[in-house]
Amino acid sequence: MKHPVIILAAALAVGGATVAAQHAAADAPAAAPQQASGAGIIHGHADIAGEGISGTAEFTESQQGTGKLVTITVTVKGLKPGMHGVHLHAVGKCTPDFAAAGGHFDPGPAGNMDPDANHPYHMGDLPQLAATGPTAAMRVATTRVTLSDGPLSLFDADGSAIVIHGNPDQGITGESKSGVSGGPRIACGVIEKK
Ligand SMILES: [Cu+2]
Predict the structure, then answer these.
(1) What is the domain range of residue 156?
(2) Within a 10 A sphere around the Cβ of 15, how many other Cβ atoms?
(3) How far is ligand 1, taken at its centre, from the CA of residue 38, in Å?
(4) How far apart, in Å, are the Cα atoms of 122 and each of 96, 126, 132, 159?
(5) How many separate domains does the chain show?
(6) Where does the pLDDT of residue 15 fall: very low under 50, low under 70, confident under 90, or very high at 90 and above?
(7) Tens-digit pLDDT profile for residues 81-110
(8) Cα 114 to averaged position of ligand 1 atoms, centre (Å)
(9) For the whole model, what pTM was predicted?
């Protein structure tokens, strides 16, 4: 494999929108890199919005040995109960509708952004979000993308967005437009440098 990549997934569902639960999410031990600010730490942010849905995604890139690790903390209110596909999409646009965000971020040599036909092999693929209460949250870490400059940077010429889908992410490859990666786009946020 030319670019060995891993996703270190630590998905945590927050059942209630309590401060304690949110705190627990923030303290999730798995795959949590050092959050201290300092040299080499880069931050990003997205305000996530959809019909009746609001939330944020916080991005932190830290150096891990010779590589970069990007931790993403997603907190969203207003999702219907169940699992929801979440991905980093190829274009930093959510208007005039969420289709503007393009396919799944996949800058590699193959560059197949088709949300379903090249799933779950895109660089922008993430574990899905479990909505079990008023607020859903997860923290994941990935080496498939960076915030700093380079071939995997989310801050490429056309930027990137985070999109939440109405249906579960089946984590499989399907026909184009089959919806296996989560179907309808119900919320979107442009990722910005912070
Ligand atoms: Cu998506």
Answers:
(1) 8-20+44-193
(2) 15
(3) 32
(4) 24, 9, 27, 16
(5) 1
(6) very low
(7) 999 999 999 999 999 999 999 999 999 998
(8) 10
(9) 0.82
